[in-house]
Amino acid sequence: MERAVSNALDHWRPPFLADSSQLETRIDALERDLAEVKLSLLQERQVAQPPELSSELKQEPVSHKEPEPEPTCSKAPTPMPADQAPHQRPEVLACARSCLQLRDQGGAPLDGVYWFTGMPVPVYCDFSHDGGGWTLLLTAVSRAGWDVLSVLSRNHSSPSLTENYSILHYADTIRDLGTGRRFAYRIETQAEKGRQQWGGVWLAPRSYSFVHESPSQTDVAVVRKFNGWNYHDNGIERRMPWVHTAGGQPAVLTTSASPSSSWWGTMVTFHGSGGFDHSPWIHPESTRSGTVLYWIREELL
Fold first, then answer.
1. CB 228: neighbour CB atoms within 10 A?
2. Across residues 119-140, what is the average pLDDT?
3. pLDDT class of 33 with cuts at 50, 70, 90
4. I want to staple 263 with a disulfide (CB 3.0 to 4.6 A). Which of 110, 227, 243, 259 is the partner?
5. What's the pLDDT at 41?
6. Whole-angstrom distance, CA of residue 100 vs CA of residue 51
């Protein structure tokens, strides 16, 4: 169409326009009129037939998903049967978030395994020693299978006092349930012979971590000793147990300041190291740690 109009204009010479300048002026005016008509037609078509929305602008219908119901819980739970480990999340949980909270609700809860609201794993509670309300973090009965990964999480669905086990990577979460400036931790060794052996109860600042990777957490205070021992290089040193991440070194969880050269005061030993049963603990009174139990209570005694 445009070419035809242009050709017509090129050959059209009205008789009353004598000189070429008048003709060119007239042609320019006709071309402007034609452009305005074309633009008007184009706008009318766009209003009548709006273009399809691009795929980027098309919106999917909003899905209104129903929130998951709150879990059912009991304020007077009974321990989960030990022979059902590894434990599956039960339909009815314990109405608490830690062993200490369960203790503080009243009643007389029994020692054993509970699954609390807000906790992704079951835990073992001790209500019988040192005021109760203790949550088990780790049990080490042998050297087998321990390294810097398993010390953080091992058999986490099977809390036990007699099998290797750890939920150490949840310890700081439990610590943060407390509101005080300090929390308590407890170490027991040679637990195969009886409870509260060759260890004690300590207080530590709330900023201290159970998965710290250096021997710098030394502002701890022992408030209860099990058996007669004193801090020294060949035994328990005055620091919160820390995770020794140096590859191939014997100490994994230890109170030692120099575990590469002197690793007395060690709670968990790398699986391929040493001849102790299972870690070197206090020389000479309790050279073998035996079964180690490590506990947390997020508030003071």
1. 8
2. 97
3. low
4. 259
5. 56
6. 66
Indicate the residue type of 246: A
Residue with tokens 């402007």, as numbered in its chain? 32
Backbone angles phi, psi at 37, to 5 degrees: -65, -45
Residue 123 pairs with which residues in a beta bridge?
A: 114
Would the CA dihedral through 52, 55, 58, 63 be positive or negative?
positive
Is-contact 116 87, C-beta < 8 A? no
- Cα Rg of the chain, angstroms: 39
164: buried, middle or exposed (CB in 10 Å: 19+, 13-18, 0-12)?
buried
**pLDDT band per the 50, 70, 90 thresholds, residue 5:** very low
The fraction of the chain above a pLDDT of 70, given in percent, is: 76
Instruction: Please state the pTM of the whole predicted model.
Output: 0.77
Domain boundaries, the chain: 2-42, 121-297
From CA 51, how far away is CA 29, in angstroms rounded?
Answer: 33
Report helix, strand or coil for 269: strand
Question: 273-276: long-range contacts (C-beta < 8 A, 24 or more apart)?
Answer: 273/143, 273/249, 274/143, 274/250, 276/143
Spatial CB neighbours of 172, under 8 Å, sequence gap ≥ 6: 209, 210, 211
Instruction: Return the structure tokens found at 38.
Output: 């074309």
The DSSP symbol for 39 reads H
* Owner of token pair 């009174």: 285
Could you identify the residue written with the tokens 């509670």? 125
Q: How far apart are CA 38 and CA 236, in angstroms?
A: 94
Query: Which pair of structure tokens corresponds to residue 238?
Result: 């005055």
The number of residues making up the chain comes to 301
Q: Using alpha carbons only, what angle is made at residue 52 by residues 46 and 58, rounded to the nearest 5 degrees?
A: 140
